Amino acid sequence: MARATSRSAFAQPAGGGSKPGYFAIGSANALHGLDVAIGNMRDGMRPVEAAVAGVQLTEDNPDDHSVGLGGLPNEDGIVELDASVMDGPSHKCGAVGALRDICHASAVALRVMDLTDHVLLVGEGARRFAVEQGFPVENLLTDAARNEWQKWKAELSPNDNRLAPPTEPRGGGAPPEFTWGTITLMAMNEAGDLGGTTSTSGRSYKIPGRVGDSPVIGAGLYLDNEVGGCGSTGRGEANLINCSCFAVVELMRQGRTPEEAAREVLARIAKKCEPRLRNARGEPDYQLKLYAMRKDGLVGGAIMRDKGDVAVHDGTHSRLIPLPAIYT
Ligand code: ASP
Asked: Which CATH superfamily is domain 22-156+175-327 in?
């Protein structure tokens, strides 16, 4: 197994040490959303709502093929979105799975939390609820995402009747850039109250109806207002079977830093990884990223392999910070 990398430079408080303040963290594609979230919290918005407002920039962005409009579709060419929200002070959650035709999946999850006695709505029921709530119905499959899906279909088999685009050698073309991807954002206000969301179009070309970790509380998002929170991107199936975000928060409760907790959970996941998902060195051959924030403002996380960043806002400005990898 490859050696683990050294400790990251940001295992220190992002600002203020144990003094509560405005903080937000998220996946790299949440960088600009952090400014929105912090600004909204300063105007008095609940952290959970501020987090949802922050991810909407990316849900609306057709060039981000991991979420909302422009998300890569399922194997039938239909975009299906998953999202969850969690509110620290009330310890309530809302989520939607396999939601079609509605761009702002995180906002629908927020309505599930605020306006129903349920936690998770899926499929047609989630869509009907969103329409009832006045969310616009739109086709989320952009031309660029459709093109990627058609390439994928054409390259599935050399023996079918579909021709791959001439620039893409059949069966040997470069994989689409966005096979995985998600946005997660967690925010804390001056009172030390937390809120977060995770939103995604999920794994591209999935079997219709597949629901990943993002809308499952404890898997792709979890927070405890007394401890801190964790969001995740990457192979959802690994989070679903390991309750990863819940585990990170529980380890932080026991005193681990966000980075220590994330590393420990990724190491556990790696240990139990099934053989077909390991590379020649025996390492998990997939990406998984855990982004965590402790109530005292300590932020951090870890990734399973290679390179990746966490977006951090310390109340003054936002920046990207490299995450330490378990395998390089
Ligand atoms: N976690 C997402 C899912 O499995 C995908 C990703 O983040 O890449 O649905």
From this structure: (Glycosyl)asparaginase (3.60.20.30)
